[in-house]
């Protein structure tokens, strides 16, 4: 894995970890410090992320928490497109965080370079969009059709291996449909019903076992879960750097970029 091609830009892979900073434009988001209420707010936030060392922006217009309402694609599009256009105008590399094919298509047409599919690239229409535009895509492991259609997560002491086996089959399917530029996300930042503490421990185990994902030969993105206790968030980040994630998706960008430098994982 020499580089990750994102439109006209190539990001080097190997020996470093790219930081993907989250910007939310959903008023339902529980991570209020990442919520942008206007285009100018989003631009200011993205510029701050870049000054700290982030390479990528992950923009979401729909809260993925199952407690929040599922909005229509048209509303989601109206939230994200003006911001994508503004970010792209300032040379930011933008990922659209959505499970809705209509939103992904509108985002790619507006200059986004990654579809971060929290539906796991299982939707036929989403695959058609990704293939048609030749976009990079994040395949998120999700136990359900999408993050709003989940129950209790299956607790498995070998979850990283289980996830890798799922991805191995998925990768073969995607390649058969002409989709090759894929990034693997084990989905440990998604919210599930069930035993919170057991899931918390399993999230750690998946990061420490993420070598099973790396063996598949594609870039690995570790999404850093948000926790009530911030020291736990930094523990996840630390493990992700130690286990050589290619990308980490974070809500706490300044801390992540500082740790990337500390671990020698920054450019």
Would you give an account of this structure?
α2 (73-89) packs parallel to α3 (101-109) and α3 runs parallel beside α4. The chain has 267 residues and is α/β, with parallel strands linked by helices. It has helices at residues 39-52, 73-89, 101-109, 124-133, 159-176, 196-208, 211-214, 230-242, 253-262; strands at 3-6, 9-12, 18-24, 56-60, 94-98, 114-117, 136-140, 182-185, 221-223, 247-250. The two termini are 16 Å apart. A hairpin with a 2-residue loop joins β1 and β2. The protein is globular. The protein has nine helices and ten strands. The strands form two sheets. An eight-stranded parallel sheet has the order 8-7-6-5-4-3-10-9. The protein has a single domain, classed as Dihydropteroate synthase-like (TIM Barrel, Alpha-Beta Barrel), CATH 3.20.20.20.
CATH architecture: Alpha-Beta Barrel
Helix vs. strand class: alpha/beta
**Major sheet: size, sense and barrel closure?**
8 strands, parallel
Radius of gyration, in angstroms, nearest whole number: 17 Å
Give me the CATH superfamily.
Answer: Dihydropteroate synthase-like
Q: What's the tally of helices?
A: 9
What is the helix/strand order?
EEEHEHEHEHEHEHHEHEH
- Uncertain stretches: none
- The helix fraction, in percent, is 40-55%
CATH C-level label: Alpha Beta
Quickly count the domains.
Answer: 1
Strand order of the largest sheet: 8-7-6-5-4-3-10-9
CATH overall fold name: TIM Barrel
End-to-end separation in angstroms reads: 16 Å
Estimate the strand proportion: 15-25%
